[in-house]
Design brief:
heterodimer, A: mainly alpha, Helix Hairpins, B: 20 helices, 2 strands, 71% helix
């Protein structure tokens, strides 16, 4: 197995753990972390694909995409945490009550 | 695609609202509203000029920074994108006018919310970018701009119900984006390009493409609240302020549908099968029945309207099974493609007008009564004639009675269904209309019923009521330019196209 395949498989595993976590957990913070794990998987897959075909150098485009993606993911996570914190301040809840 | 005439409109349509949104941040509460409203009018004018340009010159493109694709990013307005931009501009400008008076009334009461204006303009820029992008990764960025501004708008009131619903909405939105982005990564990994027109030529069928199709569809279904991922929509849309509910329900969810439609028709043709179309059609059919039934069971007006959105979005998904042809059928012989496309476009537009009007009317009623429990709608006709009429007209369009835009959509959908021989969808369309009629007439019965208890209707500015009524009337007026609209759309390469699955006999062909 080549190195990039190990990374690709790891990214798929991370993605599945993340998406499972989002749907299964109820705790605000756990859900937010789960989306970040999903994101980690996606970014890893991008980077692993940078070594495609018989290129002698790493493809720079996926790296540029990943940096944009990370910025977006950080902003979303910060926003979600701010919302969770405000809900906690108003009600004392830290998880969805009648979540599905 | 680079041979097409270039124009600066695609860049302006994204740039102008962003510039205006940033500009408005320098002003205080009053100035922000002025910049916001003026910005909405300007953006609408620009959108209409851009559409006129497309009718004159056909599809126009803009190559950002002069970097040619596949490395650079290309924005394009083809007729399909132009129609969506026009819908956004027309419905958006009415919601802006409503918001102007709405927040002025609110300012006297509980304090205005000047943050609305920059967020709405950012949302507008994101939506315009989404309709114009011809690049998978750019679509991801616009999806995020739209998603984050939409959630920020949804939690604007700061109430606990809105915050909880907003967090759920945001988590769904992030999950959807990440799933979409995973699909983009897989496609980039296997083809090395992100340009949609290029991908339509080079994408090859195989396990990777199929998996990418799966996760991208999953992500976009979460974003557009397609069944069974609709759970976040009713709480988020009903807890938001009236102008925001209207924006979210009428316009934002259509963005994800637009991408889904484009990608299925322009990129993933090689991996789609007849069964995939049927599957997404079933999701739409369940949404129609379940959403309408849930709407029928609610006791508060905004929840009725929000559940009705789940159902109306279901109709959009029911277009897909008609566009993916059974093995052995060719695009030339499939005469139901044009009605199916017309149904999809008209469903998008008529729902945008009717649902915006419905939510704005609900906002007027909350303003007058202080709540939106439907038993208090008694004698609405006596107290607020214009709003009662707006609800009636918007309801008629949602049911699909002639001569509304909703009728056009459902009629064309039924025509497509019968021409294609997929009769099993017909009962769903009819049952959905019947259930919709159920909750609309329930509201109208209450509106005409004599007042039992003394519910005091506080006075509401007439201008708010008139804006809601104009949108409701708009959902009828859109049938008049139908001939012109369809002709215009037919000059778009994607409109009226169908997918001929190439996986006959279980093996991949190359025709």
């Amino acid at each position: 197995m080549e190195t990039y395949q190990i990374y690709s498989l790891t990214s798929a595993v991370l993605f599945v753990i993340g998406i499972g976590g989002v749907f299964i957990t109820r705790h605000f913070i756990k859900k937010i972390i789960a989306t970040m794990i999903m994101g980690g998987g996606v970014f890893l897959s991008f980077v692993s694909f940078a070594e495609r075909d018989a290129l002698t150098f790493a493809d720079p485009v996926p790296h540029a995409l990943v940096i944009t993606g990370i910025v977006v993911a950080v902003a979303s996570a910060a926003f979600a945490l701010a919302l969770a914190r405000r809900i906690y301040q108003q009600t004392g809840d830290i998880s969805f009550s009648n979540d599905k | 695609m680079t041979h097409l005439p270039t124009s600066s409109f695609p860049a302006l349509l994204v740039g102008l609202p962003i510039l205006l949104a940033t500009l408005s941040l320098f002003f205080g509460s009053k100035g922000r509203a002025v910049v916001g409203l003026a910005g909405s009018l300007l953006t609408t004018a620009l959108s209409l000029i851009a559409i006129a340009e497309v009718t004159r010159r056909g599809t126009v493109i803009h190559i950002l920074g002069g970097w040619d694709p596949p490395l650079g990013i290309l924005l394009r307005i083809d007729p399909l994108a132009a129609v969506f931009i026009g819908m956004l501009a027309l419905v958006g400008v009415f919601i802006s006018l409503y918001a102007w008076w709405y927040f002025r009334v609110r300012e006297a009461d509980t304090g205005g919310l000047p943050q609305f204006w920059p967020l709405w303009l950012f949302l507008w820029a994101g939506m315009n970018g989404l309709f114009l992008s011809n690049d998978l990764f750019n679509l991801f960025v616009t999806l995020e701009v739209v998603g984050i501004s939409a959630v920020a708008l949804a939690v604007l009131s700061g109430k606990t119900t809105a915050l909880t619903a907003g967090l759920r909405y945001l988590l769904a939105a992030i999950t959807g984006s990440m799933a979409y982005l995973f699909g983009v990564a897989l496609i980039y990994g296997s083809t090395g390009t992100l340009d949609i027109s290029l991908l339509g030529q080079v994408l090859e069928p195989g396990a990777t493409t199929t998996f990418a199709l799966l996760v991208i569809t999953l992500g976009l279904m979460i974003k557009m609240a397609g069944f069974p991922f609709h759970f976040w929509l009713p709480p988020a849309h009903s807890a938001a302020l009236a102008p925001v509910s209207a924006l979210l329900s009428a316009l934002v969810v259509k963005g994800a549908f637009y991408i889904l439609l484009r990608l299925w028709m322009e990129v993933f043709g090689v991996s789609l099968t007849y069964a995939a179309g049927q599957l997404i059609g079933v999701a739409g059919a369940v949404a129609v029945i379940w959403g309408s039934w849930q709407a029928f069971m609610q006791t508060s007006l905004k929840l009725i309207v929000a559940h009705s959105s789940v159902a109306q979005l279901g109709y959009l998904l029911m277009v897909f099974p008609l566009l993916i042809l059974a093995p052995g059928v060719t695009t030339d012989s499939a005469d139901w493609l044009s009605p199916a496309w017309t149904a999809g476009i008209y469903q998008v537009i008529s729902h945008a007008f009717a649902k915006a009007s419905f939510f704005l009317s609900a906002g007027i009623i909350i303003m007058a009564l202080g709540h939106d429990r439907i038993e208090s709608l008694r004698n609405l006709v006596g107290n607020m004639r214009i709003t009662a009429m707006a609800i009636g007209l918007a309801g008629v369009s949602l049911i699909g009675l002639p001569p509304s835009g909703g009728f056009m959509a459902k009629w064309m959908l039924l025509k497509g269904i019968f021409l294609s021989g997929q009769w099993w969808w017909a009962p769903v369309v009819l049952t959905g209309s019947l259930l919709t009629a159920g909750y609309v007439f329930m509201l109208l019965r209450l509106a005409f019923a004599p007042a039992r208890e003394m519910d005091t209707f506080r006075p509401v500015p007439k201008s708010l009521e008139v804006v809601a009524l104009l949108l409701a009337i708009g959902s009828f007026l859109i049938v008049f330019p139908a001939d012109f609209l369809i002709q215009f759309l037919e000059s778009s390469a994607v409109f009226g196209s169908g997918i001929e699955p190439i996986m006959e006999g279980g093996e991949y062909g190359n025709n």
